[in-house]
């Protein structure tokens, strides 16, 4: 009888121990599930091409827009894939290293390479807009193209979008606030009776840009009055001659040398050194083409733009 009771007692203890172990495992499993759910928190991003659901802090990030690459880098976020087949600004040259995947050029994404990366996020802008659907089939794709007619609002929206995805809103807000103070100072320093003209030189030809254009922030954001308010806003600017520049006679002639970043050999200084331009009172202000032409709309590029315009209008 005693042996029977002892045997029953042992069996009961074994059953209870098994149940406890199962409950602990179930609890642990449940906890793991909760942790996974937390890690999969998402952000809904509304942009010009649609609405995209993105997992917060995504891995294997592919970036085509150099302004967005600039902003992410400034916030301490490194992209994993970059359009390295296109010229990168010098201050983002680290992305040319082998540690970062080459996902094609700004105009031709390498879909096979991108797909092999299994990205958690793809960031694009205007030049890749036609590939939006194809890229969206690979991974969540967000469009961050700039609205030149509403540059500041567009810049802030894009910055906040990227910051929300990576949990960097506080850092981004601080940087944007500091930039706004710099902009206000430039407006205060800008003489009301002086005007400016923004031009781009490439292949021996010159184009002018006015308010609302690709480089219109010189007027729209920094407050430099336009020498010619009738320039039609367009991506490639209005083709002009040096006679035109002499007629406008701006106080500040802003010059972007596209050839310097495309071919590595700038010619703008020689091109603008002629009798027609030299007879004007214009102060020639050479802007960094890597910043203005390649990576506009980024946190660092915007800061650099503000610095250059501020220095340009100072006497």
Automatic annotation (TrEMBL):
* Domain Fe/B12 periplasmic-binding span(s) in chain numbering: 60-315
Give the coiled coil ranges.
none
Question: What InterPro entries does the database record attribute to this sequence?
Answer: ABC_transptr_periplasmic_BD, Bact_iron-sidero_bind, FatB
Where do the record's region annotations for Disordered lie?
23-42
Q: Which residues form the signal peptide?
A: 1-17
This protein's record includes keyword Transport: yes
Q: Which UniProt keywords apply?
A: Signal, Transport
Q: Where is the composition biased (Basic and acidic residues)?
A: 33-42
Decide whether keyword Flavoprotein is in the record: no
**Topology class, membrane:** Lipid-anchor
Subcellular localization(s) per the UniProt record: Cell membrane
Query: So what family is this one in?
Result: Belongs to the bacterial solute-binding protein 8 family.
Name recorded for this polypeptide: Iron complex transport system substrate-binding protein
Q: Which organism is it from?
A: Salimicrobium album
